[in-house]
Amino acid sequence: MAQVRRLRAERALAEKQLQRERAALQAESERASLLRSEQTSAAESLSLEQQALDEARGRVEALSAEAAALAAQVESASGEIGPTERLLAEHAALKRAQADFKKECAAELKRLQQERRRQTEESTDEADVSDQEAELSRLLEAESARLIALKQQLAQRSREAGALQRRVDERPSRAELMQFERRYRELYRQLASKSEETKKYFSSFNALEEERGYLHKEVSLINSIHDNFAKAGAAPKDKLVESIEGLVQSVQVSLEKVQQRLRDDLRSKDVLQQQYDEMVDKQRKYYKLVREFQEEAQKLDQTFPP
C-alpha cells in the first residue's frame, strides 16, 4: 500500500510540473504572438508612410514642373508688366510653398528613417523571440517525451500495484480466517458427533447381533440336550457324553473368541487414548500459537496503522 501511495504522489508531482511548464510555454507563445502582431502593424504603418512619402515627392516634382512652366511663361511674357508681376508673386509663393513642403518632407523622411531603425531593432528582437520559441519547442518536445516515459512507467507501476493489490485481496483477512476457523471447528464437532453416534449404532448393532447369535446357540444347545436326554434310554451313554463335550468345546471356542476380541478392543482403546492425548497436546500448542499470532498482529497494527 505504501508503494501505491508513493506512485500516486509521483504521478501528481509530474502532472503539476507539466502544468507549470505548459503555462510557461503558453505565456511565451502569447508574448511571441503579441510581438508578431506588433511587427505586422508596424510594417503596415511603415508601408503607409512610405506611400505618403512617395506621394509627397510626386507633389514636389509636380510643383517644380509647374514653377518651371510659370518661369517660362514669365520670360515669354516680358512685355506684359501686370501679368508678369502677378506671375512673379505666384512664383515666389510657390517657391516658399516648395521650401516649406521640402522641410516637411525632410522631417517626415527623418521620422520614417527612425521608425525603420526601430522596426529593424524589433525584427532583431523578433529573431531572438523566434530562437526562444525554438528553444521552448525543443524543451516542450523533451518534456513531452519525458512525460510519455513517466506515464508508461506509471502505467507499469500501476499494473504492478494492481497485481499486488489483487494478491492481497485474494488472501483472507484475519477476521475471515477466524470466521473460517470457527466454522471448521463447528463442522469438525458436527462430524465428530455424527461419527460417534454412528459408531454407537454400529457397536449396538454388533453387540445385539452377537447376543442374538449367542441366544441362538443357547437355544440350539438346549434343544440338543433335550433331544439327547430324550434319546438317552435308547442310545449309548458315551454318545451323549461326546455330544455334550462337543457342545462345551463349541462354547469354549466362542468364549475364547469373545475374550480375544475384548483384548483387541482394550489394545485399540489404549492406542486411541494415546492418540487422543497427543491430539490434545497439539491442540493446546495450536491455541497457544494462535494467541501469540493474534498478539503480534495487534502489535503490528498498532505500530503500522492502515
From TrEMBL:
<dbReference type="InterPro" id="IPR019159">
    <property type="entry name" value="CCDC93_CC"/>
</dbReference>
<dbReference type="GO" id="GO:0006893">
    <property type="term" value="P:Golgi to plasma membrane transport"/>
</dbReference>
<feature type="region of interest" description="Disordered">
    <location>
        <begin position="113"/>
        <end position="132"/>
    </location>
</feature>
<dbReference type="InterPro" id="IPR039116">
    <property type="entry name" value="CCDC93"/>
</dbReference>
<feature type="domain" description="CCDC93 coiled-coil">
    <location>
        <begin position="10"/>
        <end position="302"/>
    </location>
</feature>
<dbReference type="Pfam" id="PF09762">
    <property type="entry name" value="CCDC93_CC"/>
</dbReference>
<feature type="compositionally biased region" description="Acidic residues">
    <location>
        <begin position="122"/>
        <end position="132"/>
    </location>
</feature>
<protein>
    <recommendedName>
        <fullName>CCDC93 coiled-coil domain-containing protein</fullName>
    </recommendedName>
</protein>
